[in-house]
What we know:
Structural class: mainly beta
Amino acid sequence: QVQLVESGGGLVQPGGSLRLSCAxxxxxxxxxAMGWYRQGPGKQRELVAIITSxxxxxxxxxxxxxxTISSDNAKNTVYLQMNSLxxxxxxxxxxxxxxxxxxxxxxxxxxxxxTQVTVSS
Length: 121
């Protein structure tokens, strides 16, 4: 039905930057929100940032002021600009979308495959 394709992960030094991208495709009627989650080894998956179709944003306290989420509604794409990266940011980052499929009733969640971000000197 719907695919989320992520890109931009990699290895960076502390203080460096990365930009993650996630493009949603398929039979999409409307996207209500897209966001980024992350999961470190042995940890619970946590919300990093989310943006609604109206442009409202929310961030985890641990990334506030360093990360910026943005979207291109025409391309069904969400971005996560990560600056001043710390070793604690090391995790698999997952893209999520809350959306309505064409011809169907109800909002569903879709997830990307995850992309590894490693912050190390």
